[in-house]
Amino acid sequence: MLRVDKSTFNLNFDDGHARARFVQIVQQGEPRKEDEPMNIRPTKHDDIPALQQVLDGTELFPSEMLPDMVAGFLGNDDGSEIWLTCEHDGQAVGFCYAVPEQLADRAWNMLAIAVSPDHQGKGCGGGIAQHLEAALTAGAQRILIADTSGTDDFAQTRAFYRKNGYTEEARIRDFWAAGDDKVIFWKALS
After folding, report:
1. 106: which of 76, 89, 135, 186 is 20 to 30 A away, CA to CA?
2. Is pLDDT above 70 for 107?
3. What percent of the chain shows pLDDT beyond 70?
4. How many domains, the chain?
């Protein structure tokens, strides 16, 4: 099982080269051009109010839940979750949250990804997903899954996953509620 040390944001694995690449990707970010206003990095405590506004705008889940959800990552506990924030011109405008799947070999689940409605369609969501994928790939992880709803309200979300190379792998009928299927997307990490 892979663990994330939040004090240094290192993954615990044996390959020193993979560890160095992961640290470069997650802590410093992928190299970017000076004129690019978007930056993806580990979530910080100061991001919480702006990310709550993202949640209020997207209604992914109640924004009051965010501080408790991200507390373990921001603290020094020995968890394995990853929280990434996308900032545009210095303002947090999106995030993703991923955890390793229990009892599975190097499989991860992106439990949440959200981008402010004003910044959707501008590459932030795709950038966050690619950043997470690159970090997990550097850590020799195998697959990443993402769950979403099968309702019409989430058609744009399902299109996002398809556009970013995810395959609809499974559908569990009436999972979230009667008439609301759970749709599971899958992507191999190489």
Report:
1. 76
2. yes
3. 79
4. 1
Neighbours of 154 (CB within 10 A): 16
35 DSSP 8-state letter: T
Separation CA 189–CA 100 (nearest Å):
14
Phi/psi of residue 138, nearest 5 degrees: -60, -30
Structural domain boundaries enclosing 89: 4-141
Strands 4-5 and 10-11: antiparallel
DSSP 11: E
Model confidence pLDDT, tens digit, residues 22-54? 545 555 554 444 456 789 999 999 999 999 999
Residue among 133, 111, 128, 146 at smallest CA distance from 41 = 128
Domain assignment of residue 79, yes or no? yes
Beta bridge mates, 183? 148, 171
Using alpha carbons, select from 130, 104, 98 the residue that is nearest to residue 4.
98
**182, two tokens:** 């759970």
Q: What is the CATH number of the domain that holds 136?
A: 3.40.630.30
pLDDT in tens, 117-133: 999 999 999 999 999 99
